[in-house]
Write a structure and sequence with these properties.
single chain, 3 helices, two-stranded antiparallel ribbon
Amino acid sequence: MAPERPFRYIDGVVSLELDQERCIGCGICLQVCPHAVFELADDKARIVHRDHCMECSACARNCPVQALRVEAGEGCVRAIINEMLGRDCDCC
């Protein structure tokens, strides 16, 4: 069961991508996502809370048609390191 108020990570750095044309609307991504990033609309998954994604890649690993892609941990880690080093984020 997804938490009532998902944790929000750094805005705009998540590598999550959804190929709507490949999606078959099975809802597995909704079941495995710990932060309620997805919803089903018109028999397809849709990203509704992108910045809640923690890049665990549970959705991509469990998608039976490979409609999801995520670089596990990449976005947040890069943004945090670049911020600490005083660099502009090159990952967004």
